[in-house]
Amino acid sequence: MATIDAPKQVSFQQDAEVLRKACKGWGTDEKAIISVLGHRNAAQRKQIRLAYEELYQEDLVKRLESELSGDFERAVYRWILDPADRDAVLANVAIKKLRPDLHVMVEISCTRSPEELLAVRRAYQARYKHSLEEDVAAHTKGDTRTLLVGLVTAFRYDGEEINTRLANSEAKILRDAVEDKKFNHEELIRILTTKSKMQLMATFNRYRDDHGTSITKHLQGDSGDEFLLVLRTAVRCLNDPKKYFEKVLRNSIRRMGTDEDALTRVIVTRAENDLKDIKELYHKRNSVALDQAVAKDTTGDYKALLLTLLGKED
Length: 314
Hints:
Blueprint: H1 12-23, H2 30-37, H3 42-56, H4 60-67, H5 70-80, H6 83-95, H7 102-111, H8 114-128, H9 132-138, H10 142-152, H11 164-179, H12 186-194, H13 197-211, H14 215-218, H15 226-239, H16 241-254, H17 260-270, H18 275-286, H19 290-297, H20 300-309
């Protein structure tokens, strides 16, 4: 369930005019920007960008980038982009870091639908003039590269049907690989990169029923083991993405310093999807509302935008 409150009837020209006025003069009217963009869905935001360009022969995204700064600017930038283009940007930033944020790559690959992931790959190619899988391969190596390229290029069956017999046999394959600590076993990678999410959930459930604990509990090892970390993240994202996102939010807020990148990424990418469910799970697991935690840990216009996307005005 989404958290943003977007009206059904919108004047895109009027919204463009409000944003133009907010960016003119000596100071920027951040509240006006939030009042418009914070209450528009992806399709509406796209139409506002088109209306703005038609009216003023100017790119709204670039104008906002020049007017805003800091965490607020980054959050607005990520929010205003089309979802596939946004994921392409997130992926590029993550993979091009000195130490790539591989968990972001896993997150995008494993929590988006097959059609959404395909759209991300197309957007990446259009924006950067080379493929996402090419960049993933260039910035990773060994077993990590094999797994990540497989996840990025996957086009899974997206239906509800499952094969119980196959779930049973593949749960055993996973268990054998785990017991032998052959986490890079080609069969394990094959299962994770080709099976539908419903089929994988059946396999993971069978694994838990047979062995009394989840597979992620058995995927433990050296905290410096990059491949094992990527593998565990993939399993968590594929099996229960809402639980995964709740933990990302919890970790982003609980640290000595707030991880604004993670906090922004989850709120911005899930606000039109399942953020309401993630909020409920956060409250249940932490005994505090996510809105309260975010309000306590952030300030200013950045805080106001996040709270708006969470469905709560500052």
